[in-house]
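<instruction>
Derive structure tokens from the sequence
<entry> Chain with its tokenised backbone below:
===
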Amino acid sequence: MPEENPASAPQEWDVIVVGAGAVGENAADRAHKAGLTVAIIEKHLVGGECSFYACSPSKALLRPIHATRASQRVQGSEGAHLDPQGVLARRDTWVNRIGTSDRFDDSGQVGWLDHVGITLLRGVARLVGERTLEVDGRTIRARHAVILATGTTPTVPPIPGLREAKPWTNREATTSRRIPERLAILGGGVVACELAQVYAALGSMVTIIELTPRLLGANEAFAAEAVTEALRRDGVELLLETKAQSVSRLGPSGEVTVELSTGDRLTADELLVAIGRTPATEGLGVESVGGELNEAGFIRVTDAMEVTGVSGDQPWLYAVGDVNGKVLLTHMGKYQARAVGDLVGARAAGREPDPARTTPWAIAAGAPQVVFTDPEIASVGLSEAQARDRGLRARVVDMPMDSAAGAGLQAEGYQGQARIVVDEDAGVVLGATFVGQDVADLVHAATVAVVGKVPLTTLWHAVPSYPTMSEIWLRLLEEYGV
């Protein structure tokens, strides 16, 4: 089905999805597979933030750094070196950059929509009534459902002079062809740490300014400390418990000066703001149809992702992914989108929805996440503090990663740690965290254990292959006493 111009598009589809990022694409695909006609609306690039400005480019930048370091840690292959321009070129290939421009080619994603039969509308959408939207002045309507998947935008706080200084956000940092000599970063979360490591490896002098006492505050403290030590080894300066009071830039592209709460002044060539995300709901018209936003501006939804407060004979407005604020991770947004696509399909066909397929209940168990620094942090479920805050009788089991034979094969003198948090009453794993080189692929087994509430006595029979990193599971269970 061809890409449509709103001026000539049909007026009605069964389902309309707003936002053609990875989450919106999943919602549209699932609804279409249920036999419904689907239109998807996008004002910028099909594929969204993840494909062009976040997940894909940042990991494309990080991988050569990780691969080079991994090689250097293995006897016999220590000669690997990093080529900064090669790293940037690889990134450009991954995001389908058009020549030397700042434009990107989303024809691959558009072609996929065309192939499966989903209509693409280019433009800005706004809700104007029940199942009704305007797209750049043209009114369109959904027979069954509207699914909002507009995501988030980078938060730029109201620090005096910050906006006028035109700081980088993740968009500029992941797509820049220039490696600044000095880079200052506001924030100490995942984006800040990953991109600090990227630019430090590429040759920048990097300084992180973080308001709290430590980096990666959402992670277990031992994991955050491992990354903190690594950043310091990389030459990254960390200004913790420090606030940016004001910002100024010398001319339109000159150096940036940050006045700090310590009374010091920091000067850099670029300033990256990486302190959080703001829901992309401005002008969307959610409240005009009764939809509710929380105090942070995210769309309130039920466990089935139905927008709360919306009137109608039956639910028709849904919000999935970052815009609902449940879990700001692409894979969890896609999970919500698949569930909602199935839910909409069942309701449109007059079938009773199967909650096992149409309610993304695993959100409550704790989302899996990987921080793609060196060392990596791979985690899922509850941390020790979260388990105790919920009043659970939790036991923590820690083991060094090099207790698994496979770790020593990955790197000489392998450094890392693994932790599981066990519910002593239920005999199941509540959460797991792995820190070290190449631990990302360990998290899915942990996710199965956590979401599936697999008893420890059963996990003991899931024998890890020797000699692999997965042997850490045997060591953790032995330490627990299974």
Observations:
- The longest helix spans residues 330-348.
